[in-house]
Specification:
Layout lengths: L7 H24 L3 E6 L14 E6 L42 E8 L12 E7 L7 E14 L5 E8 L1 H12 L2 E6 L5
Length: 189
């Protein structure tokens, strides 16, 4: 009777177990290596000018930086081309053409005149009434609301809008020489 040590099938089995153990360890080691990428921390709508409050660093599998923005890349101030949901990694394709500048402008609105549904991500139309005897006209359409700050001490709220530079000038002039109102674009948030 031969000893088990000299049996070729036993030796082959032991060799296969050693190879499987080494390969499994290497595979697990590679799986634990992650790369830092940007993730959105809240739902953000297309047209949003990203701020530090909108994003945080998450991790992804190696190679994800091909499709997603790495945490070393500047994203604050960039504009989104499509809606993203909270927790989603920030895809390169979700950023709008950098040639489309957007500025954030804070607009004071009397709380009594602020319609329900005006909140982060909503689209609004901006209306301007220059004086009591003059007609109201729309100065901007489908503007993205970047945020709303309720003025707890006063009678107004501050609505932050993302606008192109030309509309910014008209809006600022409107706040100084008349009354501004917001309406939900299309009648819904």
């Amino acid at each position: 009777m031969r000893s088990l040590v000299h049996e070729p099938r036993v030796i082959a089995g032991i060799a296969l177990m050693l190879v499987a153990t080494v390969l499994g360890g290497l595979l697990l080691q590679g799986a634990s290596q992650r790369v830092p990428v940007w993730q959105v921390g809240r739902d953000v709508a297309a047209g949003t000018v990203l701020t530090a409050a909108d994003v945080h660093v998450g991790t992804a599998a190696p190679g994800a930086e091909q499709a997603y923005l790495g945490s070393g890349e500047a994203v604050v101030g960039r504009v989104l081309a499509r809606d993203l949901t909270a927790g989603e990694m920030l895809p390169r394709a979700a950023l709008a053409d950098p040639g489309l500048p957007r500025q954030l402008v804070a607009v004071p609105i009397d709380r009594v005149r602020l319609v329900p549904g005006v909140r982060h991500g909503a689209r609004v139309d901006v209306w301007w009434t220059p004086g009591e005897q003059e007609p109201t006209r729309r100065i901007a359409e489908a503007v993205l609301v970047d945020g709303v700050v309720d003025g707890s001490m006063g009678g107004s709220a501050t609505v932050v809008l993302a606008l192109d530079p030309v509309t910014v000038r008209a809006l600022i002039a409107g706040t100084r020489a008349g009354v501004l109102d917001l309406s939900l674009h299309g009648g819904r948030p």
